[in-house]
C-alpha cells in the first residue's frame, strides 16, 4: 500500500491535460458488448476501473487489445457467463453488465456491485426498468439473476433521477422489440456519450441529455469507433485545486459547458474563470467570499465535486453552506478535514463551513472524492507534510495525479505505507 505525501502552500501554475471521463468509460466498455463486431474506444483514462472492465470483457469471451489510450474490443464470441463474484465486486459500474448482457443475450447473472460505498446505493430503479422490459429479476445468494424470453419496449418512469438506471435501461432497450420511453431520465453528459456510442453502433436513441429518452429497439448492433468525452469531475477538481492554492492553471481538453455550475460557483466566490473553446483558465485570488452550494443532478453542481469543494470553502472568508441533494450522507471527508484544522459542522445533508487556515495532518481517504478533498486540503495547508492513506480509492478516478500535480509545481510524492 502507498500513501500520498503533500507539502502544501505552493500555488499551482501551468497547464494540465484532462483525461477521458471515468464514468463514461465504465459504461461505454459494457455497451460495446452489445455489438456483433469490433468496437474501438479512444481517449480512455488509464484507471484501475477501466483495466478491470477490460478484464471482465475478456472473462466473458471477448478479445480486448490495448493500444495506448485506445481499446479494441471484439465482442463477437462473447457469451453471458454468470459472474457472481470476483472482479464484478471491485467496481460499482459492473451493474452495467446487467443491461448489456440482457440486451444481447436475454440473460445475466451478476454479483451485487462493489465500488465506493460511502452510503447504501440501491439499484431498485435499474431493476424496475428491466422488469418493465419484460425480464424476470431475482436475487440469487447475493447475485442478481435477470432473464427475458423476449425484451419488449415499455414506458418507464424513474422514481429517482439515476445516472446508472438511465444508462442500464438504454443498454437493454436498444435491443428490445419496439419503443421504450424513459421519463424522468438523468441528463448527465455521460448519458449522451453512451447514446452517441450506441447510435454509432446502429441503435436508435433520441432525447439523451433531456428528461425523456426514446429508444426504438433494433435487431442487431455493429462495431464502430468512438472517442470518450473529457472527465468533467477530474477537470472540476483541478479547477478547485488551482483556486484553493491561489494559482493560475489552464485546464485543457474540457467541454466548458459541462462545468457551468462549477464555473458559476467559483465566480461567485471571486475566483477568476476564463472559458476558452476546449479549456478553462483559473486565476486564483488572495481572498474569497463565502457562498452556498447545493449539489444536485446535472446540470446542477455535481455531487462528485461536493467533497473537494468543501476544502476550497475553508479558504473563503465567513461561513459557507454546502448541501448534497443527491446523496444523504456523503461527508466522509469532513472528519478528516477537521483533523487538518477545518471548522466544519454537519447538519443533516449540509456542511456548515467556517473559513480558516488548514494545517498538514495524517488523514485517510475513505472513498474516491473524499480523497480529492484531502488532496486539495493538503495542497492548501501552509506548513508541514500531509500524509494521505487510502490512495487506492483516489487512483480509481485520477490518472497521472502525481505527475500532473508536480508539473503544476506542487511538492507531492508517493511513499510506501
Ligand atoms: N438511487 C436509488 N435507486 C436506484 C439508483 C439510484 O435510490 O436504483 C439513488 C442513489 O442512492 C443516489 C441517487 O439515486 O442517492 C443518484 O444515484 P445514481 O444512480 O445517479 O448514481 P450512480 O449511477 O450509481 C453515478 C456515478 C457516481 C455519481 C452519481 C451521481 C458512475 C459509475 N458513478 O453513480 O460517481 O456520484 O452517478 O452523479 O457513473 C464517483 O465518480 O465518485 C461517483 C460516485
UniProtKB/TrEMBL annotation:
The modification 2-(S-cysteinyl)pyruvic acid O-phosphothioketal is found at residue 116. GO terms for biological process: cell division; cell wall organization; peptidoglycan biosynthetic process; regulation of cell shape; UDP-N-acetylgalactosamine biosynthetic process. UDP-N-acetyl-alpha-D-glucosamine binds at residues 92, 121-125, 304, 326. Residues 7-405 form the Enolpyruvate transferase domain. SUPFAM superfamilies: EPT/RTPC-like (SSF55205). GO terms for cellular component: cytoplasm. It is found in: Cytoplasm. Its EC number is 2.5.1.7. Gene3D superfamilies: Enolpyruvate transferase domain. It comes from the Bacteria. It is an enzyme of class 2 (transferase). The active site is at residue 116. Phosphoenolpyruvate binds at residues 22-23. Keywords: Cell cycle, Cell division, Cell shape, Cell wall biogenesis/degradation, Cytoplasm, Peptidoglycan synthesis, Pyruvate, Transferase. Pathway: Cell wall biogenesis; peptidoglycan biosynthesis. It catalyses: phosphoenolpyruvate + UDP-N-acetyl-alpha-D-glucosamine = UDP-N-acetyl-3-O-(1-carboxyvinyl)-alpha-D-glucosamine + phosphate. Its main location: cytoplasm. One of its GO terms (molecular function) is UDP-N-acetylglucosamine 1-carboxyvinyltransferase activity. Belongs to the EPSP synthase family. MurA subfamily. Cell wall formation. Adds enolpyruvyl to UDP-N-acetylglucosamine. This is UDP-N-acetylglucosamine 1-carboxyvinyltransferase. It comes from Paenibacillus sabuli.
Amino acid at each position: 500500500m502507498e500513501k500520498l505525501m503533500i507539502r502544501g502552500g505552493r500555488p499551482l501554475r501551468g497547464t494540465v491535460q484532462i483525461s477521458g471521463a471515468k464514468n463514461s468509460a465504465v459504461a461505454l466498455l459494457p455497451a460495446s458488448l452489445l455489438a456483433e463486431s469490433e468496437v474501438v474506444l479512444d481517449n480512455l483514462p488509464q484507471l484501475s476501473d477501466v483495466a478491470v472492465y477490460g478484464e471482465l470483457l475478456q472473462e466473458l469471451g471477448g478479445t480486448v487489445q490495448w493500444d495506448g489510450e485506445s481499446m479494441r474490443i471484439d465482442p463477437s464470441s462473447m457469451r453471458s457467463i454468470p459472474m457472481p463474484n470476483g472482479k464484478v465486486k471491485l467496481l460499482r459500474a459492473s451493474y452495467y453488465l446487467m443491461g448489456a448482457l440482457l440486451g444481447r443475450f436475454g440473460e445475466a447473472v451478476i454479483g451485487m456491485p462493489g465500488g465506493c460505498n460511502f452510503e447504501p446505493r440501491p439499484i431498485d430503479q435499474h431493476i424496475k426498468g428491466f422488469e418493465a422490459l419484460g425480464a424476470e429479476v431475482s436475487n440469487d445468494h447475493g447475485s442478481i439473476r435477470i432473464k427475458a424470453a423476449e425484451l419488449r419496449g415499455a414506458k418507464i418512469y424513474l422514481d429517482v433521477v439515476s445516472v446508472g438506471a438511465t444508462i442500464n435501461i438504454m443498454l437493454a432497450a436498444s435491443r428490445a422489440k419496439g419503443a421504450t420511453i424513459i421519463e424522468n431520465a438523468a441528463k448527465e453528459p455521460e448519458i449522451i456519450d453512451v447514446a452517441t456510442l450506441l447510435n454509432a453502433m446502429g441503435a436508435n436513441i433520441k432525447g439523451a441529455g433531456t428528461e425523456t429518452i426514446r429508444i426504438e429497439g433494433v435487431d442487431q448492433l455493429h462495431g464502430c469507433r468512438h472517442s470518450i468525452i473529457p472527465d468533467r469531475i477530474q477537470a472540476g477538481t483541478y479547477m478547485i485545486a488551482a483556486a484553493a492554492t491561489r494559482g493560475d492553471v489552464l485546464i485543457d481538453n474540457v467541454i466548458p459547458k459541462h462545468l457551468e455550475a462549477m464555473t458559476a460557483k467559483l465566480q461567485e466566490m471571486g475566483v477568476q474563470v476564463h472559458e476558452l473553446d476546449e479549456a478553462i483558465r483559473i486565476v486564483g485570488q488572495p481572498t474569497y467570499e463565502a457562498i452556498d452550494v447545493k449539489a444536485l443532478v446535472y446540470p446542477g453542481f455535481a455531487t462528485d465535486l461536493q467533497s473537494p469543494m468543501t476544502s476550497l470553502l475553508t479558504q473563503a472568508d465567513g461561513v459557507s453552506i454546502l448541501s448534497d441533494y443527491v446523496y444523504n450522507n456523503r461527508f466522509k471527508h469532513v472528519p478528516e478535514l477537521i483533523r487538518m484544522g477545518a471548522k466544519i459542522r454537519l447538519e443533516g445533508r449540509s456542511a456548515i463551513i467556517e473559513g480558516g487556515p488548514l494545517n498538514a495532518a495524517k488523514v485517510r481517504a475513505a472513498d474516491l472524492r473524499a480523497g480529492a478533498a484531502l488532496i486539495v486540503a493538503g495542497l492548501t495547508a501552509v506548513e508541514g507534510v500531509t500524509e494521505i492513506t487510502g490512495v487506492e480509492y483516489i487512483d480509481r478516478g485520477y490518472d497521472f495525479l502525481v505527475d500532473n500535480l508536480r508539473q503544476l509545481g506542487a511538492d507531492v510524492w508517493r511513499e510506501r505505507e
